Description:
The protein is an alpha/beta fold. 38% of the residues lie in helices and 14% in strands.
Amino acid sequence: MSGPLSGIKVVELAAFVAAPSAGxxxxxxxxxxxxxxxxxxxxxxxxxxxxxxxxNKDENPVFDIYNTGxxxxxxxxxxxxxxxxxFKLLEDADVFLTNTRPAALKRLGLAYEDLKExxxxxxxxxxxxYGEKGPEKDTPAFDTTAxxxxxxxxxxxxxxxxxxxxxxxxxxxxxxxxxxxLVAEITTALFNRTRTGxxxxxxxxxxxxxxxxxxxxxxxxxxPFGTVYPCxxxxxxxxxxSYECSxxxxxYFTLAAxxxxxKVCKLTGLGHLxxxxxxxxxxxxxxxxIYYPMFRDAFKSxxxxxxxxxxxxxxxxxxxxxHFSDISEDEQAWANGYIEHVEFPNGNVDVMPASPIEMDSCxxxxxxxxxxxxxxxxxxxxxxxxxxxxxxxxxxxxxxxVALQQQ
Length: 407
């Protein structure tokens, strides 16, 4: 496809979400992305199928969202022939993208130190869990552990109640944030290469990205500043935040915009508080336990639609807190093309997130189902690398490579 990265070749040796999400974005931008899978395939294929009984090899949207637009080759890198094919792939590659653990890369001869002299123009892009140094540099990591848990979000942002329980993290969110940063680093390195002629080594780390994404919390909870989490809802600032409505739905609003406090007090019938000296900014936080119940009861008196309508009339930043399930019917999402219908080989049609790329110079392709097993393009890619039909057949017979038709 055409796009800003047309002509760029990316070799992706990656599984699950963090690095594959970066590969998908690079593909959306026009790069040729060749995904190298082990004979058993990316473990996220199985994870995707496991989400719902309806999902299967022919309908795997949880896998497809991070892997659409790629070419698929399956190599056994534990064989000399498979490893040789991998090095041939890298000979004219612009980017090597991986979240394989550094120790395994070293065993395969694919560590940065092994490749930097051999391929001096290569952008080597690596996803890490906890970083390259320190006591946990080799500790296995997923976004649920290194991003969500280790950075404090899960433990501290679940509200304290009599039945407190740390939040259950959604899979892939920290991975995607990590992949986004890696895309920025890769494209920057590609641009810099046009000036220097040299490759680069770029890294994006789950733990580091968690620290940065939750940076405000990391700062204000330090001992000098004294903010304590986890906490009760009533301990948070008043009156901003989340409130339950009479229909059982919740709203959320922020007072960041000038004049928001006046608007909230007036539309809830609590305008008299604006004249209350104990509600003044200097005292409001200390008196929050007095004022929180007032706003809680006011918002509980009407359904969420009532509050969103009034807020829109006075230009107050207030929304109904949506459920994940609301997105597939969200008028705003459809109007902007943020979601799309995807038809699968079994005839089912699912609503999926569209590419996040929004550029006048690039119209990303629609999401397409990926091959239902590893190796869909194995033979074609090997042929492009110069392998003869006999050599390809020999690799397939010895297990050095796997083609889709063998599944």
